[in-house]
Structure formats: structure tokens, C-alpha cells
Amino acid sequence: MSQHASRLGLRGRSHTPFGGPSHQRLRRITHLRRPRRIAMLSVHTSPLHQPGTGDAGGMNVYIVELARRLAAIDIEVEIFTRATTGTLPPAVELTPGVLVRHVDAGPYEGLAKEELPAQLCAFTHGVMQAWAGHRPGYYDLVHSHYWLSGHVGWLAAERWGVPLVHAMHTMAKVKNAALAAGDTPEPAARVIGEQQIVSAADRLIANTAEEAEELVRHYEADRDLVAVVHPGVNLERFRPADGRAAARARLGLPRDALIPLFAGRIQPLKAPDILLHAVARLLEEQPSLRERIVVPVVGGPSGTGLAKPERLHKLAARLGIGDVVRFQPPVAQDQLADWYRAASVLVMPSYSESFGLVAVEAQACGTPVVAASVGGLPVAVRDGVSGTLIDGHDPADYARALRPFADDPGRATRMGAAAARHAQSFGWDTAARDRGVYHDAMRDRRHLRSGPC
Questions:
Q1: Quick one: residue 249, left, alpha or beta (phi over 0 = left, psi -120 to 50 = alpha)?
Q2: Measuring CA to CA, how many Å separate 90 from each of 9, 123, 451?
Q3: 443: annotated binding-site residue?
Q4: Which one in 167, 172, 224, 440 has a CA-CA gap of 20 to 30 Å to 304?
């Protein structure tokens, strides 16, 4: 019997006969009920923040897009997040049917993510205050994102008598097993916290089958309670549009240059330094390439990268490639799509990726990807078709993968067309799949209330 089943008192659930009158009544209720309103929790980063800076990244994009798609199918979403400035209104309508609630918990500024566990009680109090102003049963379900939110979600779901659906996004044990050189491991408190959430959640959402297996292997998750739901991409925003040349003209980039792009948060985990080392190696082998290469790095320092925010600039200078590297602050999603379109290839040498949303966004724009074969990237990238997957993090291997793009400018166009086709399978019909997970969690919660048949 699983820890989850034991906690809920579902002993012998798999042996329950399904033909009795109580089960028939439950089935009728299940068909009639669907989630009307979801409390979504994102404690440490707001869906209103700019992705690519601070702690904002793919998870922010995921939450915003999921909430919008749920609202489009008449499921209201209220997203609770920590207030990071005193000028924020208590609530902001992100889009019709999606409300972002700002919760006061700790000082507005200067609070690192590692310090947030001490503010979870205050955050939970703020969530409970918002709930107290509503009628009983106002929220049908809690969907928490990342382990900090999971602890608030656990308490809220227990208090409200509703299911908890949790998405890990990243896991401490997985990250610690693949640290970049000199990076700081995740603390033991997070490992323990994640284990508690896995035991408490009614459903766990994993981005890939590999992540689902990691939940089972590292955290003893009940396999039957883990649902695999790939993140979606906004295919209306991220698309080839008017092509590479037009995007380069808008961004002031050379029309015929080799442009290997890094896009994302600048921290050791994402390994932008590997791209710089690979470019330096390419230029050693082909000095003439310097006249026609531009290396954009689009994003801001994040996580442990904040300790040395100038580290990558200094590395570029030390490698002698400061003249070809262009550092660009984080940009809005529409402009990010232009950076993808302008690139010859996106490079993702990450040590760990729960999925790799950036890789799918780039491919949707018609740009192939060279990426580390870690986490969800083997799902996001079709090796040899929409891009190239590399085992390990040796810059020489990345230089070798980039060389064909330098030698054959048409390669980016050919692989880019295949990449755009591959990305079409990652559209945001995901919301419907998440809704199915919600239904399952609500069904099991009703089963628990009704008792065995």
C-alpha cells in the first residue's frame, strides 16, 4: 500500500467492487461535477514577472499559459503569489477569468528564494484570509507549482477539503545529481519538503515520462498518482512568421552571419559558459569565422548566478571573444520570438532541465536546437531531425555540433523547417489534459468522502 493511500485511509481501494449502488451514484456525480474555480499557487515567482530574469523562467510562462487556457474553457483561476513591491494592488486581472492575488509575506525586496521557507506561514495566512471572504466550497481544487508552493497548497487543500495537484517543475535530488562545477547544491530542507509534498498530493504532474520515473525512484511517489502532461507552447506567438532575414533586420543583426543563440537565465545550471567555450574553440579552428559570427546571450542573472553577475562577461573577454558576444537583457515574449527566428541555432547546454520550454519555443519559430541530452530535452528535441542532442558538457562536442552550421548556411533553414513541424505537437491543448488530471483528483476525493462501496 502506498504512503498516499495510507494517509487517506484508502486501504484495499484496488479491491473495491464497482457494481454497487454507491459506486453508481458516485459515477453520476463525477460526470456532473467539474472544477469551476482553481486556486493556483506560485509563491516564489509571479506570473507577471519578466521571464529570463531573477527566478522567472519557463515555469512563469507555463503558469500564465495554463491559466489562460483553463479560463478559455470556463474554469476560473486565481493565482496566489508573493508581493514583491508595496505598490502592487492586492489583485490584478491577468485576463478574463484569471486573477493574480498578491500576498504580503516578508519584505518586498531583497529576499532570496532560499529565505522564503521562513515566510510560508505568513503566505499561508494571506491565502486563508482571501478564502475566508468567500462562501464554503469556493475553490474546487489547489494546483501548486514548485516545492515552496506545495507546502502552502498542502495546508490549504486540507483546510478546504479539496484535492491538491502539484507540479514539481524541478527536483532537488535530480539537480544535485547533475551540478555544474562550483555550483551550490540544493539544501536538505528542500529534499525533505519535496518528499512531504509527494506524500501529501492527490495527483502529481510530471513534464515527461522520465520525470515521472524520477518521482517514483527518488521520492517513492505512487505511480498511479503521477500524470505525464507535456508543457505547451503558444504556437500563435512562436512561429516562423516572416523568416530569419526579416527578424535579423529588426534586431540589427548581420543577414549572413552564423548566430548561435543562448536564451534563458544566466546561472551555472543553464551553462551558457559552455557555449562561449565552444565558440572560442570554433574561432581557433576557423579564424575567418570571426568576421561572420554573432553570439547573442539573451537573459539575466538568476539563482547562484547572482553571486557573480559579471562572470560571463569576464569569461568572454578572457576567451578573446568579447567582440562577437552580444549580451541582451531579458525581453518580452514577442521580441524573444524574433531572437529565436534570427538565430541559426539555439544552444542549450543545461545540466538539468525538467522539460526545456525554450527549446520548443525556438523550434516553433523554425530554429533548430543543439542541446544537452538531459531531463526533458530528449522529448523536446528530435535528435538528428529538429536538432542535435549531446551527451555530456564538453565544449568540444558543442563546437563539433555547431561546425556544420558554419560550413553550410542552408543547414539552419532545412533543420529549421523540420523543427517547426516537430513543435506543432506541443500546442496548448495541454489545458484539456490538465483538466483530466483535475477530474481524476476530484473523483478520488469524492470517493474518499463517500467511503467504500
A1: alpha
A2: 39, 13, 40
A3: no
A4: 167
Does the annotation place 56 within a ligand binding site? yes
| Spatial distance between the Cα atoms of 182 and 304, rounded to a whole number of angstroms | 10
331 is in an annotated binding site: yes
Average pLDDT of the chain is: 87
* Start-to-end C-alpha separation, the chain: 19
Q: Which of 211, 251, 269, 209 is nearest to 57 (CA)?
A: 269
- Please state the rounded mean pLDDT for residues 354-382: 95
Q: Where are the domains of the chain?
A: 37-232+430-442, 244-426
302-351: per-residue pLDDT in tens? 666 555 668 999 999 999 999 999 999 989 889 999 999 999 999 999 99
Predicted pLDDT at 447: 56
Q: Is 343 known to sit in a ligand binding site?
A: yes
Radius of gyration in angstroms for the set of CA atoms belonging to the chain, rounded to a whole number? 23
Task: Establish whether 113 is an annotated binding residue.
Answer: yes
**Phi–psi pair at 167, nearest 5 degrees:** -115, 120
CA 302/CA 317 separation, integer angstroms = 21
Angle at 310 between CA 304 and CA 313, to 5 degrees: 125
Cβ neighbors of 364 (< 8 A, separation 6 or more) are: 233, 235, 238, 239, 340, 419, 420, 423, 424, 426
CATH number of 37-232+430-442: 3.40.50.2000
CATH value of 244-426 in 3.40.30.10, 3.90.10.10, 3.40.50.2000, 3.40.710.10: 3.40.50.2000
Q: Which residues, in sequence order, are bridge partners of residue 145?
A: 167
The answer to whether 190 is annotated as binding is yes
Strands in 270-328 per DSSP E = 295-298, 325-328
Which pTM was predicted? 0.83
Please indicate if the annotation marks 452 as binding a ligand: no
Average confidence (pLDDT) over 251-268: 94
**CA-CA distance, 386 to 77, in Å (whole number)?**
35
Say whether 58 counts as a known binding-site residue: yes
Over residues 44-81, the pLDDT tens digits come to 887 877 655 556 567 888 898 899 999 999 999 999 99
